[in-house]
Predict the structure of Regucalcin.
Amino acid sequence: MAVSNAAFRFAAGLLTFLVSGGFRAWAEPTVTAVTEPVVHGEGPHWDAETGVLFFVDIDQQRVNKYDPATNKVTYAQFVGGGVSLVIPVKGTRAQELLTTRGHDVIVFSWNQENARFDSSENSKNLSVIARVETDADKSGNRWNDGKADAKGRLWAGTMGPEPVVGSVTPDQGSFYLLQAGSDPITEISPVSISNGLAWSEDNTQLYYIDTATGQVDVFDFDLERAKIANRRKVFNLAENGVKGHPDGMTIDSEGNLWIAAFDGSQVINVDPDSGELIRSVPIPASRVTSVTFGGPNLDILYVTTSRLGLSEVEQEQQPLAGSVFAVTGLGVSALAPANNVIPPV
């Protein structure tokens, strides 16, 4: 699926904010739709080894691959529950990937051409490696966001039922650690919408979002022991007059956070040390879901968006909602390439 030559380009304007007692100006970033719209885009992961972007469409139960060299999107179609994240398995050159489907964590082999995975259990090309929250009172839960740490361990969380988009049953989810040799370990419970994750350069801080809190929190992080402690607030959107709800997140080469603002039509850039808003990049879709850096120099910010739950009028006003956008000209890059995962089996 290639994007037409009329791909939308959006100049965010000259951005100037008060930072650490002085003013700093940035050149105009450019926001370009690089895919056709999907329903509920999420979970972007740039694979530096192969130079492609993986992302999911939760509603359509698809893992997608966007190749910027060809502008082509291919997909792996699943059944049995929404897929919410995708991470290549370390050492496989993205021929094996980890994803989530409903309550399951699965690993699948994929040649990255359009394919359908019908099996809900194990098969030649698909293995269920973990399952959580299968009790009747959690039947409406599903996995949401997650990432691998520098050791390849999976940190991921769940969310409660969402009968109406943006209205989730509170305190039904949990945040888990999945590593080899053990069942999923509950790290935080309850949570409402376990979401964005990022680690500091020295891996001593884990930044975390439970969307329902309206803020980014930080934990002390012990990489060797896989332990988190001492949760505290970094940045609350409403307290700082920022429209939207915090969703997915990444971190840049200056140690600052980039946070998707769902129902906020923007990505915000925050200094986690001072708790200050550095700048905001407008996105031509209200439901901004997640972000990651990619490209040959890791300086393109890829932004996923959603059109799920938008009215007909809103979809007409936001024709590119659901697209993946590429933001260039930010003057920063990724802190490091995204970690690939070592499956917890």
